[in-house]
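--- STAGE predict ---
source: upstream dedup step, 1 unique chain passed
mode: sequence only
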Amino acid sequence: MSNYFFILGDGDDIRRKVEEYLLSGDLRSLGTFSDALKKAIQDIADAVASTMSAEIIFVGGDDILFKTETRSYNEQQLKTLMTRFAARTGTEISFGVGPTIETAYLNLRRAKSHGHGSLINSNS
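--- STAGE serialize ---
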């Protein structure tokens, strides 16, 4: 068994929200949403780096990938960060967790299929 978990997150329905602002011509709200999204995803990165000693591999747009030792992984902390993300952006984020990047990706796809704001960790 791996000593690490890979955690992959992706915002839910971000494209739909962006398209809604674009098609209505509401560029001010689009800019506000974009700023909130950047700050919220960076907040997750900063928080997991400090609370889970996570190594941030990728942060961009509404996506994040990080790795942490299994003993440092804190699912409740991640759920709290999901709630904060939703409060800041008005959209939810889903996560997949696994001992390999491939498993984390598959678990993210499973989380997305379960509905918004889901977290799937096949190890728990």
